[in-house]
Amino acid sequence: MNKKRIVNNIFFMLVLIANIGCDQISKTIVRQEVGTYETISLIKNHFTLTKVENTGAFLSIGSALPDLLKFFLLSIVPLLALSYGIVYLVTRRNLTKMSALALSFAIGGGIGNIYDRIIHGSVTDFLHIDLGFIQTGIFNMADVSIVVGLILFFVQSYLRKVSPNAQHKIF
C-alpha cells in the first residue's frame, strides 16, 4: 500500500471515529442531564431536545419484535454489514474520496447507534425539529452522520450524471 493511500485511510478512519465520538459524547450528556421525555426548547419550539430511548430502529421499527430476533436483526446483522463497510473503505482502490467520506460518515453513525443498542439496550434519541410545514421524528447525532453520508452519495451521483467524465474532487 502506498503512502498516499495510507494517509487517506487514516484520514477517513479519523472522520469515522470523530462521528462516533460526537454521537457518544452528545448522548452521554443527554443521558446525564436530561430526564426521559423532558423537553428543552433551544430555538423557540422549532428546535428542541426531548430525551427518548428507542428500542427499535428508525422511527422505532422493530421495537415490538421478540428480544432475540430484535438483537439479531438490529445489532448482529448491522454490525456485520458495518464491519464489511470498514473493510471495503480501507481496501477498495477505486473508491472516490467523496464516496469514502460518505462511507465514513454513514459507518460512524451506524456504529454509534449499534454501540447504544448493545451496551444500553436502546438508542438514545433527543433532537427534534419542527418548522411547522416540516417536522422530524426525534433523532440523534448518529442519525445526522448517516444522513450526511447519504447526502454526499447523492451529490456525487448527481455530479457524475451531470458531467460523467469530469473529476469531482472535494479535497
Please give a structural write-up.
The protein is mainly α and 171 residues long. It has one domain (14-162). It contains four helices and three strands. The longest helix is centred in the first third of the chain and has 31 residues, at 3-33.
Structure characteristics:
single chain; 171 residues; mainly alpha; 3-stranded antiparallel β-sheet; 3 strands; 12% strand; globular
Give me the count of strands.
3
Envelope shape: globular
Helix content: 55-70%
Largest sheet: 3 strands, antiparallel
- Topology as H/E string? HEEHHEH
Helical element count? 4
Which ranges are low-confidence, i.e. pLDDT below 50, for 5 or more consecutive residues?
Answer: none
Q: What structural class do you assign from the helix and strand content?
A: mainly alpha
CA(first)-CA(last) distance: 20 Å
Strand content: 5-15%
Radius of gyration: 18 Å
Q: Strand order across the biggest sheet?
A: 1-2-3
Overall tally of domains: 1
Mean pLDDT: 91
